[in-house]
Protein: DUF4242 domain-containing protein
Amino acid sequence: MFIATELQMAEHTSLESYADNLSSDLPSGIQLHAQMLDPIRGHCRCIWEVDSIESLRQYIEPTANSSAKCRYFEIDPIRAIY
Structure:
């Protein structure tokens, strides 16, 4: 399944280092297709291919700082990706 995530960090200075860590040493069953950073607003948006939202949540949330907020959106590849 494809999942879009949007992570918003209160501490914008750590956004780029977080994004670097996020894309390294991915566990089996998780593939990162795209990563878009907005350092001014402190957003990191990603497109993932995963087995489940829960497995992605278990990977992302422990690496984020306590002030981060993450949202998850399932993508229908038939309708959303042309």
Notes: Residues 10 and 67 are 6 Å apart (CA to CA). The radius of gyration is 12 Å. Strands lie at 2-8, 30-38, 43-50, 69-75.
